[in-house]
Write a structure and sequence with these properties.
Layout (H helix, E strand, L loop, with lengths): L21 E2 L4 E2 L26 E3 L7 E3 L3 H7 L37 H15 L7 E2 L8 H4 L6 H9 L28 H6 L3 E9 L1 H20 L5 H7 L25 E9 L12 H6 L4 H10 L2 H4 L6 H13 L28 H25 L2 E7 L10 E7 L10
Parallel strand pairs: 5-8, 6-7
Antiparallel strand pairs: 1-2, 3-4, 7-9, 8-9
Protein name: tRNA:m(4)X modification enzyme TRM13
EC number: 2.1.1.225
Function: tRNA methylase which 2'-O-methylates cytidine(4) in tRNA(Pro) and tRNA(Gly)(GCC), and adenosine(4) in tRNA(His).
Length: 425
């Protein structure tokens, strides 16, 4: 991707202290900070005449960025893509589920290549499997008081208000709260090996804001099978409850202080609750899916799941604006907010082979939308059944208006104290 001084720019000059390289694809200047006396950032230094003598090459650890050839050895020692020591709570594929290679053919044709008869059979299967499911979910649209002032600020336009509604992290942190970020794929996360949880035996509440597709299944298995099951196998109690029962223990601990003991429930469960905003069902994967038993009970298998998760994108892609004016407005807004825009504004849809024009029988947008919602509902019902089998009381509900996010379904679950969950799946 080259840049030249004669290229017509939408902005005459780059921002002060920023790179002078014009990114043709994004129709704007690079926003990276430059060193004192330089015109270009390290990534685009090759475009500067004074830097032409030094050669930049692709980083062997991550070809998405470049490095000076004469500084490669130094760069490899500090590159963010270098191999890092694995923490104790990393256990390879602990939440991945069982791998069943015999169920999924190596190559499946795209939906656009299915015959009209094959597509009709798939849709019939979907409708039969969805019979009896409640497609009308309850509205549970709430707002935290911490956001009220910002949401009611008259200076905010529609886009700013929408963005605020989507942002909830860090808005109501308590002064004495402890926050710790773990940089790890959920697929390999073993919660009971995290030092704080292992030491204090704390109950966990799982909260996920738009856990894309397969990440929802990995998170559920991480909570319900990895953490909850392991705690119950060891018959562990929270530290505060043990100290409440042991009158001879006088150690000072925030959890054991008088006044906090009454907050420890008599019926303790390792996972106190689950709240997950669902999205991107087309990113689901049969191997990791927690609802396999539910699908099999309906006479469905891996191939059916594959096509249903692909068709689920129709629920959001079918609602895209088609007018030229709307397209231009959206394009300008994306250019302006490309670095911090919400990644799910378009429903996470990136599928190009399933357009209405390429489908057998030319399904209408409304028909595709209804089928897409049925696919999402069926996949989510498998998760609901899974949680019920594990001793939870789950529910699906709408947590926001579709004008704020097309992915507006929330999965919640509370432990069912009247029954004990299974220990494995």
């Amino acid at each position: 991707m080259a840049a030249s001084a004669s290229t017509p720019h939408t902005t005459d000059f780059p921002a002060e202290g920023r790179c002078s390289y014009y990114v043709e694809k994004k129709k704007r200047f690079c926003r990276m900070v430059v060193a004192a006396g330089k015109r270009f950032c390290g990534e685009h230094a090759g475009a500067a005449e004074e830097e032409n003598a030094r050669k930049r090459i692709l980083c062997p650890l991550d070809p998405k960025h470049t490095v000076y050839e004469d500084q490669l050895a130094k760069h490899l020692k500090k590159c963010n893509s270098r191999e890092k020591p694995k923490p104790d709570f990393f256990i390879q594929d602990i939440n991945a589920g069982l791998k069943d290679e015999t169920e999924i053919p190596e190559q499946l044709v795209p939906i656009s290549s299915l015959s009209e008869e094959q597509l009709e059979n798939l849709i019939k299967k979907l409708r039969r499997a969805s019979e009896g499911l409640n497609s009308t979910l309850k509205d549970q649209i709430m707002s935290h008081p911490a956001l009220h002032d910002a949401l009611n600020d008259p200076k905010n336009g529609d886009s700013a208000t929408k963005h605020l509604k989507q942002q909830v992290d860090g808005k109501h942190r308590k002064k004495n709260s402890v926050f710790e970020r773990l940089q790890i794929d959920i697929q390999h996360l073993c919660l009971n090996k995290i030092p704080l949880l292992s030491k204090e035996k704390l109950p966990v509440v799982g909260i996920g804001k738009h856990l894309c597709g397969v990440a929802t299944d990995l998170a559920l298995r991480c909570l319900v099978e990895t953490y909850a099951a392991s705690c119950e196998e060891r018959n562990e109690e929270p530290l505060a409850k043990r100290r409440k029962n042991d009158k001879t223990d006088k150690e000072i601990n925030p959890l054991a202080k008088e006044g906090n003991e009454k907050n420890v429930p008599e019926k303790w469960t390792p996972v106190a609750g689950i709240v997950i905003a669902l999205c991107c069902h087309h990113r689901c994967d049969w191997r990791h899916y927690v609802g396999k038993e539910y699908f099999r009970a309906l006479g469905l298998g891996a191939v059916d799941f594959h096509y249903f998760q692909r068709m689920s994108s129709w629920a959001t892609c079918g609602m895209r604006k088609t007018s030229l004016e709307a397209s231009n407005v959206t394009s300008k807004r994306k250019d302006k907010h490309s670095d911090d825009s919400e990644e799910h504004d378009d429903g996470g849809c990136r599928i190009t082979d399933d357009s209405t024009e390429s489908l057998p029988g030319l399904l209408t947008v409304e028909e595709k939308k209804k089928i897409g919602h049925l696919c999402k509902l069926l996949i989510d019902q498998g998760r609901v059944e899974y949680l019920q089998q594990k001793g939870f009381s789950p529910a699906l509900q709408y947590y926001t208006d579709p004008l704020v996010s097309l992915e507006n379904v929330l999965l919640t679950a509370l432990p069912n104290h009247s029954s004990s969950p299974e220990t494995s799946a």
